[in-house]
Automatic annotation (TrEMBL):
Leader peptide range in chain numbering: none
Family matches, as NCBIfam families: CocE_NonD
InterPro entries with a match to the protein in the record: AB_hydrolase_fold (IPR029058), CocE/Ser_esterase (IPR005674), Galactose-bd-like_sf (IPR008979), Xaa-Pro-like_dom (IPR000383), Xaa-Pro_dipept_C (IPR013736), Xaa-Pro_dipeptidyl-ppase/CocE (IPR050585)
Domain Xaa-Pro dipeptidyl-peptidase C-terminal as annotated: residue spans: 290-555
SMART domains for the chain: PepX_C (SM00939)
The organism's place on the tree of life at top rank: Bacteria
Pfam families the record matches: Peptidase_S15, PepX_C
Record keywords: Hydrolase
Molecular functions (GO terms): dipeptidyl-peptidase activity
Protein name listed in UniProt: CocE/NonD family hydrolase
């Protein structure tokens, strides 16, 4: 990455508070040109709970200072109850958070150094609330860049997929469980830091219990889901994600659903800003963002809106790996989305496990193809699935799918005689029956190389009780045939000549998703089943004419001293003597010091997902976070642990939170809750 030291405008940085109408003070950090009082600038707001003072300080310094050097005020505000902001944070995307955001925008628009025009940017949480606040139509908000976020909190977030409960629901809840134990910095808030900290420890709550009380798409999830009414968003939106990220589907829905000026960009990246993009290639995202901001906040003609609406990285075939540094491919574009250039190509299932080309309209049964096939997958299917949302640290992408396919039904094409290039959302139609009233199906689309290695390209899940509605699920009637449609994740991929396309079907996908209450046998009737691929023809002349993204660049990094390096691990542990299997994920973030504020930070998380062979009541997910803040003689440490188990009737949560000041434990709290399963 190229570090820029010489900007068009000199930059100053300041840290303080915004006092809201109800008296609550929110911590704020601002980077802006030193001459902004005489030559005002638009503001770019990033509004997060992730602590501007320390946990995002390194990233913020390289992004917000960059924008400031190019004539903007880069603004970071900690959400109420996080960082140095007053209050207690008790959940995601509360109406209070959104109302505060509107008030922040108004405050920014009134500052003497601001032109009155504001943009919002954010990745993940900040991408969510940028869209949510845009739907409230504050007059100061002129444009949004939303990265790795969603328009639908139920269908496409860490909590659920296809009505199935995701393992990331536990993982993410544990991350915020830890985050809510972090103290404000005494250097900023003074002696009141301890009272603020203890209040957060006591009242932030166990978010996982709240989320598990909403297992269907009710009003809880509709709140903050801008897909409920896309017309509420009246400002331009640039939606960005990566194929390894959990949120790429939202880019395509936003392009299709919004009626404002909009653009979409999907690279090969995991859940991160594209100028740090891994898997690579990373791009000059900050330069790209300036083209957007200059056009919408300054009225400069940058050409960005003359380019195609959607650009995506067309991935090439690669061997399976849990981590890619670079994903080979090329940039392609579509002038609109949905694109009239995407053509559906259908493949029908056969009882011989083939995928055969088929016309789009249903055809009569081919002789011998209506012999039913059944599967009852072992719980081991899913151990090599990676995470729903990849952070690429520790290595969390899917491994060779042959390890999964032994417990699955597979259907495969012949070796391809010509390339097949897809861009969009594959869909699978199934004629299926189950022997239990609650069942799930997991579908995986893989690229099979000439050496038979299987690289997962896309996948989808469906809780079959949600076959008609996520809001009003209905139990299955055992033995009854149902026709269901399962959308997979959007993807752009080229299947090359000589490779084959495989679709794998399983009845579990643990621990990416929590399995059904009891083992299930699914019976598939091939005559009613299809794989539908969104195919596109390459456009070589058009692709050659696309403007190239600049190489990554950023403002100078903060001075940081590494005291203990990070360590990562992703292990599958098979105890054959006891028929017990554990997936262990370790992310030790090490210890480092932010030199400018002389603050040492360390954090370590361990996750373990365990089952005993064939025993659905043995499933457990366990997480432990330990985090330390240290400066001189001041030291604060927290330890949070969460254990989630289940039986056929309910989920059980047991959690503890312990906090230490120096060697003394100053807070301890525990939870033990049982929550009935709701057709999950």
């Amino acid at each position: 990455m190229h570090i820029v030291n010489d900007f068009p405008r000199d930059v100053q940085e300041e840290e303080g508070w915004i006092t809201l109408a109800d008296g609550c003070r929110l911590g704020i950090r601002i980077w802006r040109p030193v001459d902004a009082e005489s030559d005002p600038v638009p503001a770019i707001l990033e509004y997060l709970p992730y602590r501007k003072r320390d946990l995002t300080a390194m990233r913020d310094a390289q992004t917000h200072a960059y924008w400031a050097g190019h004539g903007y005020a880069g603004v970071r505000v900690d959400i109420r109850g996080s960082g140095e902001s007053d209050g207690v944070l008790t959940d995601e995307y509360l109406q209070q958070e959104l109302d505060d955001g509107v008030e922040i925008l108004h405050w920014l628009g009134q500052q003497s150094w601001c032109t009155g025009d504001v943009g919002m940017i954010g990745i993940s949480w900040g991408g969510f609330n940028g869209l949510q606040i845009a739907a409230l139509q504050p007059p100061e908000l002129k444009a949004v860049i939303t990265l790795c976020s969603t328009d639908d909190r139920y269908a496409d977030d860490v909590h659920h997929m296809g009505g199935c409960l995701l393992g990331d629901n536990l993982s993410w809840a544990s991350t915020m469980f830890d985050g809510n134990t972090c103290p404000p910095d005494p250097l900023l808030v003074g002696e009141r830091w301890r009272d603020m900290w203890l209040e957060r420890l006591e009242h932030s709550g166990l978010w996982l219990a709240t989320w598990l009380q909403h297992q269907r798409r009710d009003d809880y999830w509709k709140h903050g889901s801008v897909c409920e009414d896309f017309s509420r968003i009246r400002c331009p939106v640039y939606a960005i994600s990566g194929w390894a990220d959990g949120y790429c589907n939202a880019v395509f829905r936003l392009l299709a659903g919004l009626d404002v000026p909009r653009k979409g960009l999907v690279g090969p990246w995991a859940h991160m800003y594209p100028y740090h993009g891994v898997p690579g290639p990373a791009i000059g995202f900050l330069q790209e963002s300036l083209r957007w901001w200059d056009y919408w906040l300054k009225g400069k003609e940058t050409g960005i809106m003359d380019e195609p609406m959607l650009r995506v990285w067309m991935q090439e075939s690669v061997p399976p790996s849990a981590r890619y540094e670079v994903r080979p491919g090329r940039w392609v574009a579509e002038p609109s989305w949905p694109s009239p250039r995407i053509e559906s190509k259908h493949f029908r299932f056969t009882s011989g496990h083939d995928l055969l080309p088929a016309p789009q309209s249903p055809t009569a049964c081919v002789s011998g193809d209506d012999v039913p096939l059944s599967v009852r997958s072992p719980l081991s299917v899913g151990l090599y699935a990676g995470k729903w949302c990849s952070y690429n640290a520790p290595p969390d992408l899917p491994h060779d799918q042959r390890d999964e396919d032994g417990g699955s039904l597979i259907f495969q094409t012949a070796r391809l005689e010509q390339d097949i290039e897809i861009c969009g959302q594959p869909v699978v139609e199934l004629e299926i029956e189950a022997d239990q009233p609650v069942a799930m199906v997991a579908l995986r689309l893989s690229d099979i190389a000439d050496d038979d290695k299987a690289t997962r390209i896309s996948y989808g899940l469906l809780n079959l009780t949600h076959r008609d509605s996520d809001e009003f699920p209905q139990p299955l009637e055992p033995g009854k045939r149902y026709h269901v449609r399962v959308p997979l994740k959007h993807i752009a991929h080229n299947f090359p000549v000589g490779n084959a396309i495989r679709l794998s079907l399983s009845t579990s996908y643990w621990p990416l998703a929590w399995p059904s209450p009891v083992p299930v046998k699914l019976t598939v009737h091939p005559v009613g089943c299809r794989l539908i691929l969104p195919c596109r023809e390459p456009q070589p002349r058009e692709e050659e004419a696309l403007p190239q993204f600049s190489p990554p660049e950023a403002a100078p990094p903060l001075a940081v001293t590494v005291i203990q390096p990070s360590q990562e691990a992703w292990r599958v542990i098979r105890d054959l003597a006891n028929d017990q299997t554990t997936l262990e994920v370790i992310n030790d973030q090490g210890t480092f010091r932010l030199d400018d504020i002389e603050l040492e930070l360390s954090a370590r998380v361990v996750e373990r997902y365990t089952y005993a062979y064939g025993n659905y009541d043995s499933l457990s997910g366990w997480t432990e976070w330990e985090r330390t803040f240290r400066r001189g003689g001041w030291e604060v440490r927290s330890v949070t642990r969460t254990l989630m188990t289940s039986n056929a009737a309910s989920f059980r949560l047991r959690a503890t939170m312990d906090a230490f000041e120096g060697d003394s434990r100053v807070f301890s709290k525990s939870w033990d809750e049982e929550i009935p399963r709701d057709l999950v």
